[in-house]
Amino acid sequence: MFETQDQEYSDEERRQWRANERHGKILAHRFSSLVLHGYRPVVHCELDCFDFEHPHKQAIQVQLWADGKLVDRYPSSVRDGYRTIINPSDQQLFSRFLESVPKPTELQKLMATPMSELLMTALAWILMLTLLSITWAITKTLWHFLTGP
Fold this sequence. Notes:
The structure is a single chain. By secondary structure, the protein is α+β, with helices and mostly antiparallel strands. It has helices at residues 11-36, 91-100, 106-111, 115-147, and strands at 40-42, 49-53, 62-65, 70-72, 85-86. It is 50% helix and 11% strand. A hairpin with a 4-residue loop joins strand 3 (62-65) and strand 4 (70-72).
């Protein structure tokens, strides 16, 4: 079923294969560039685009469409009110966009990782146990005050 076959490809099939390869390289390059600049993909069931969020509040939230276009989310983060679309062939505009992305702080980087859930859970437990300990100490002191030694 998955065996490779030695066969001759037509010129049209070779042309289509090269076009698909170029398209895949553009998508892979844009995806990895966004991740390297602090964006993280948001996984959901839509298959026609990737949503990206950035931990820095002033960064533009974007989508990477299946055709390779990079689009800011609607409503536009740009003051003109229109969606900004960077076509796959416009590498210069894409590079300028990446240069404009604010760098996330170390805390924002940490909060954007799966470790943040573990950290938040640990802090919640520490806070809850501390409040429980304080409540127990106050109750014990109040009980001794009211009932005597």
